[in-house]
Fold this sequence. Notes:
The structure holds two protein chains of two kinds.
Chain A: H1 2-32, H2 39-83, H3 89-111, E1 127-129, E2 132-134, H4 136-158, H5 160-170, H6 172-177, H7 182-204, H8 216-222, H9 225-232, H10 237-257, H11 262-277
Helix pairs in contact in A: 1-4, 1-7, 1-9, 1-10, 2-3, 2-7, 2-8, 4-5, 5-7, 9-10, 9-11, 10-11
Chain B: H1 2-6, H2 11-37, H3 41-66, H4 74-89, H5 105-129, H6 132-152, H7 154-157, H8 159-162, E1 170-171, E2 174-175, E3 184-185, E4 188-189, H9 192-216, H10 218-228, H11 230-235, H12 240-266, H13 282-295, H14 300-324, H15 337-355, H16 359-376
Antiparallel strand pairs in B: 1-2, 3-4
Helix pairs in contact in B: 3-9, 3-12, 3-13, 3-14, 4-5, 4-6, 4-12, 5-12, 9-10, 9-12, 10-12, 13-14, 13-15, 14-15
Amino acid sequence: MDTFIQLVVNGLGKGAVYALLALGFVVVFKATEVVNFAVGSLVLFGGYLVYVLRDVIGWYGAAAVGIVGAALVGLFIERLCAAARGADQNSLALLTIGVDVIITEEIVRRVGAAIPFIGDPFDARPILIGNVAIFRTQAIALVVGLVLITAFFLAFRYTDWGVAMRAQAENREAAALMGIRSSRVTATAWLIAGALAGVAVLFMATQDFSGAGLGRGTHAIALIAFPAAIIGGLDSTAGAVVGGIIVGLTESLSAQYISFDFSKSAVFLVMLVVLVVRPSGLFGTKELSRV
Amino acid sequence: MSDTLTKAPPQAPTRPWAKIIGTAVLLVVLVLLPVLVGSHVAYLKLAQYVLIGAVGGIGLTLIVGQAGQLSLAHPFFLLLGAVSYAVLAGDPAETPDLVSLHWPPMLAVIGAVIICGLVGLAFAPVAGRVRGIYLGVASLSLVFLGLWLGQSLGILTGGTGSGRPPPTFSLFGFPFSNTTPAPTIAGVAIQKQQRLWYLFLAFAVLAYVLARGAVRGRIGRAWRAVRDNEAAAAAMGVSVARIKAGAFTISSAYAGLAGVMTALWLDLVKPDENEFTGNYSLTVSIAFLAIVIIGGLGSVPGAVVGAMVVYGLQQFFLLGANEFGWFAGAQFGGLSAVILAAFIYGLAVVLVVLFEPGGAAAIGRRLAASLSRKEQR
């Protein structure tokens, strides 16, 4: 039972991180219908800034810079997409792959053999509650994730930006005619995606989370945001959170009860089952084809 | 169309001739390549590697470009093809503790391709239900499945530690390995690598011709109809589900053949240790997608060009590093051959999307058009 509680808490913590990534993914998709394959490089870029700056300006300052930096890379990709006028959404998704390859290779090259862990204030310091040992990273990730997700949904529901965003997701042309600046909404969406990736990496590149430092391993883990977003439905923000939690729990429980090697495959198998039953994810809008 | 109507007709027969001569020259050069490179076998290895990328890339461009079904599962089928070949053709005397059926190698290649096709077909029910990016990520699950199966089915794959040797290919008793005495062409001994080059060339030409035929024929029209509008395709009498399943089967079979070639090229069948580095990993998914984008989605010759850029450059830089000591200063954290190649193809993908969404195929068409215009002047 103790193990189970431990697994659930750790799974929820991981799930919160995946939810952050998936949320960034969904926000971009809602605003632009572009699938952001560059999420791994956003994650690595934020993490790299933390790695470089933490000895200079302290971890908290570095973390802040990392989040801002990742957000700016998001904005940069948005500008690139905007420059490719006339390209359809699929081509733009491919463009993000190209950007991802370049940024990732450069950072992997710079980090070299070090592959550092960057969760200094909480990494590898388990919290003991009775017999239950909980990874501090996952516990903090859960809290931070909850706060950020709540803040996002409040903003999405009540602020002008949220209204503009939802209007654009509903109907781009009509929103533009109502005076909503579509370019600004799009830019904000990418900024948010980048910033969320910048937050997520603080927890991902740790010994607690996966043992994968800042390198290709973390880049690959960021891809788990895809199943998370897909399970929930690509155009559903609530779905992203649910998907993230499902993925986190699946990974954590299957690693313990089946095998560690199987845990990532398990995530994708769960996704396949969801897709076969509901091809647009749990909360996604069904695609209608009118003839 | 309007060109042919308004301009003088004699222009029509000139173009095919240029094309036929060009193709013939290219084929002669390819056939004589072992002679041209002589003792520099490394160049031959490079060219072999490009052909692997070309065969796999053609398979991917058919499904992604022609049929419009995003697939990231290519590395899985590469792995499946490589392992199937090793299992089917394996000699129990050489690998006593692994499953080895000791089929004739040619039969094993065909068997491996058929197995990949059938597994691709088995994935079709999923492919028929989900679309676009959902399908892409769904197909990604096969890569993870392959990773896990490769690790856990050591009795087939040889495990991640040592892998297993691929059986030597042979055709009607003629082995594709080093022999003495070896036949020679123009003084160059035709040994293992030269023989493999001819084998790969035969595979690649077969793959190319079949793909061109499919694209030009009824099945290609059906693929494009499904890609452009499923409802309209169905209304025209195209069975959408069957066409999609067929596209997956064919694309997987191509990837399987590329997998067999990979095994022969590496002289090793070894499953990956993780999902992000290795011969059957996510990196390879992305590389194949880059091949297809750079070549122009749906273009068969384009896929070959893409393979030259993505697979060729990487091997070219590696070759430079080995033979001429390029990147000598690059230790960990330096600019290595693989990283430089990745930069270039990443940049190529970005530039293609920004400036020429049709890829190399569109550039080629434009060049051909401007050439024929010059001829008329």
